[in-house]
């Protein structure tokens, strides 16, 4: 039987994950007091195959009862019940934004600042995060991408890496993305902007990408970049890092950076890694022209 505890930061996507698990035939229970988990596990194991997948949502809404979680995990281990923990996380700024958009208050800051509640919750969850089987960072993840991650783990049984890699293109004239971990400047490559028939296209268009990649320096850069990223990824995973943003920039974020971001995204192992692709500034030149 697969017995899964879903927990993590409030606003990070726990309810969505429980829904996705329910869609793939998990028996799901939300906001269960931790003290009742061993009893539920016992009942499920007694069904002798009738219930093969169980998921429970546990979070700090349980108040003091949440503190019982570690005692409960010890009881499960004593009884020989195997379990997995999914921990949902997101950056503080993302959580604050989500709370403001939904106009909801944080469970720990009903009369105070959302930031204070998040800080307090992070401290409370530090130990359980350290014991998690899977850490899913939803900062830059769309709902459909989060669902795909859950399916990869529980339907396709693929090996899980908690590191989510976002490959991002941007334009230096609009600023380096603030969440960047690695930044690469490709302004040394020939610029399609100065070729009339390519100027209005983007790196998503074949004529532009073919032009950029026709130069030996582009191909050499991509080869060395892929080698370096593949060298770094297992080291980041070993360190416990769960989100990596690789930003590639050119002048306007429309031609060269888009081409190389696409190329890096497709060069990395899609089955082994959780990969996201973003083009931050690809449409900004067109919008600025309309405004002017």
From TrEMBL:
Q: Where does GTP bind?
A: 59-62
Residue stretches making up the RapZ-like N-terminal domain: 1-157
Q: Which UniProt keywords apply?
A: ATP-binding, GTP-binding, Nucleotide-binding
Q: Cite the RapZ C-terminal domain residue spans from the record.
A: 164-283
| Residue spans crossing the bilayer | none
Q: Which GO terms describe its molecular function?
A: ATP binding; GTP binding
Residues at which ATP binds: 8-15
* HAMAP family for the chain: RapZ_like (MF_00636)
Q: Which NCBIfam families match?
A: PRK05416.1
Q: By what name is this protein known?
A: GlmZ(SRNA)-inactivating NTPase
